[in-house]
Amino acid sequence: MKPALVILAGALPLSAPAEELTSEETKFFEQKIRPVLAKYCYECHAEGEKIKGGLRVDYRDGLIHGGDSGPAVVPGDPTKSLIYTAMAYQDPDYEMPPKKKLPDEIIEDFRKWIEMGAPDPRVPDKVVVQSEIDIEEGKKHWSFQAPKASPAPQVEDAGWPVSFVDSHILSGLEKEGLRPASDAAPDVLLRRLHFDLTGLPPSYGQIMAFAEAWAKDPEAAYSAKVEELLASEHFGERWGRHWLDVARYAESTGKEVNTSFPYAWRYRDYVIDSFNEDKPYDRFVMEQIAGDLLPAKYDEDWQEGLIATGFLAMGPKSLNQQNPRQFEADLVDEQIDATSQAILGLTVSCARCHDHKSDPIPTEDYYSIAGIFHSTKTYFGTVNAVATRRATKLLELPVSTDEPQGDISPEEYQALAEQLEEQRNQLRELVRSGARQGNLQQQVIRIRTTSAFLEERLGSYNPDGTKKSFAMGVQDHARPEDATVLIRGELDMPAQRVDRGFLQLLDFCEDECPPDASGRLELAQWLTSEENPLTARVMANRIWSKLFGQGIVTSPDNFGVSGNTPTHPELLDALALEFVKGEWSVKSLIRELVHSRTYRMASTWNAEAYRKDPGNALLWRMPVRRLDAEALRDAMLFASGQLDSQRPLGSVIGEAGHVGIGRAFNTERLDSYQDYRSVYLPIVRDALPSSLALFDGADANIVTGAREETNIPSQALYLMNNDFVLTQAKSMATRLMEHTDDKDEWIRMSFLLCYGRVPNGYEVSAANGFFAQFRFGQDDDLSVLTTYCHSLLAAAEFRYLN
Known about the structure:
Blueprint: E1 4-8, H1 23-40, H2 42-45, H3 60-65, H4 82-87, H5 104-115, E2 126-130, H6 135-138, H7 164-175, H8 186-198, H9 204-216, H10 218-231, H11 233-246, H12 264-276, H13 281-290, H14 299-308, H15 310-313, H16 324-344, H17 363-374, E3 376-379, E4 395-396, H18 410-432, H19 438-459, E5 470-471, E6 473-476, E7 483-486, E8 494-498, H20 520-527, H21 535-548, H22 569-581, H23 586-594, H24 607-612, E9 625-626, H25 629-640, H26 668-672, H27 690-693, H28 713-721, H29 723-739, H30 743-755, H31 761-771, H32 781-794, H33 796-799, E10 800-801
Antiparallel strand pairs: 1-2, 3-6, 4-5, 7-8, 9-10
Helix pairs in contact: 1-5, 7-22, 8-10, 8-11, 9-10, 11-12, 13-14, 13-20, 16-17, 18-19, 21-22, 21-23, 25-29, 29-32, 30-31
């Protein structure tokens, strides 16, 4: 439903109406201000003309709303009012009128007028956006209702379920006359658990130990293995990567000018650590939205919360956007989109230009939330240059940390300072010489760019040469403000202002945004309230999807009307309630799910079940899943013995990437520069490493709750020919040869490393037949064994999980 546009004479003004002005204020404006605006400004900045710079000065709200460069008038503060600085010729980039400076007495009148509060009786007819959405009717959608507790359904085969999860799944199967698959073999379960919980295969020793424990007591062995993996440091690397997909994690801006985010890796490490320590999910969410505003006893705690707000700074950005207001509007829109999809499973940003097409979200609600983010300053780094106009500073951390770049000497620091001063002197000379055209202008641009990079580098060190520590993140603006509704999202079409707030369809919260703060803290509290019907449901569904191949809601980022309905709604409600009851513990919910008999089913094919349920929505078997890109690469490194399990400090992109990365960036070196886990590979937007891009790595430009799973020829070609794969095959062969010269042991050990199981008789025979073609000790034994190992790494069983 489109919002209605209503013309109201003098209604809903953005400023004080005329009757509230004193006669002296009105007289001052009419005699000193309006004539000057009409004579010198209306030609370019009034209705009926081509509006320049998006600025209208023929009514008060046009001045307050401002144009492309920001508010023209900030009542009470001439120094922040662009109309005053432009008239006073205080900024060479903003000199108005452009041909000749106004007399000093006129400029002084404008200064007095702004200090008076910019009284202005001109309140025109207003366009007011009104919604026709029936919010009460919209609230009836299933996901907007509070989760309901219900007893586990009764089933015919009462001996099969071991948890409430199983009862729900079996009930659905029995209604269709289906039976669940048999229990999976222990070696299948072990490999499944290892990949699902840590993203790595079991080692040779772990396989042997589990088999021995299983023979004595299967349940005890299984429980012990679950606890071991939940406690592993690799758990956070696996499950942190899942959240990084949702958080659209990347180390560059993407879009037209792909420039690096030099400190994005701090957020990556924060996420991994949060999952390892099993930080309650509600706290995890609050930190990412308002971590800088949460009470903190120690600097270390506040610092962690500040780094967490990197979530809001992480999105793609058009740094070459000429219009600063458009850049901010797009940045805020991206923050709303990421926050609402990641946490609520709603596409709130669809209401930017009109009422949401399917969900009960009016345009006014969008701008209520937008006011919160417009009142927030986002810091992401980069440097202003010719094509990067929208750079920001970074936030300096209160507690110094280890830095990948290291310190410099005081002498090096002084040399940088002298070099910067030399550049500044050159710039002053060129400006004084009137460098406005041709080659001189190009010199000015070059020196300004060089100076910017030198200033940034110098600012990253203390005078003694020690490295400062920085982070991406957000902070509240000093003067929080409500947002103005923009008709069709157009900057030059403002309507009414709306109070900062939340979605009307979820009106359980009576808190309001305080006038002296952005409202992010209140937003975080609203998102994580136990009364919010979406947050726990959405995360429980995300956890389920990573263990069972797809979510109970198969559109994990869209729980709205246009999203998919849950296959097992009562089960989803039960999981959401269990999640909150368990103090939002991700590990506790995972423990519950992997102990279910549903999770421990085999992936055995059943023709009748397939005929009735080809998509396996009812879970009549455990789905066969392809390893995701990171797990596949890590498994190769694991089998070859080359995996470095330590966390690297920083990222290869780092500070060297402060210049634009560009479209011709060589992605091949990203795969091979390190043997760390794939979660630590640098993520450059639109330039992923081949191992991730070819195997459906997450698109860092958007919230990615569910990755695609393709099977295409280029993947097979990669596995056959890529240098990274060939290197791992050779390293694996070397590993086997160093372990033993017994070919039967090569075969046995290689299958355990690659597939987590011993080979069957046919496979042993085929491998021996291959080896029999060569004369070991006379031919190139390493090449022969490398070819054999390569065949195992490239096989389908290596990249699929039963």
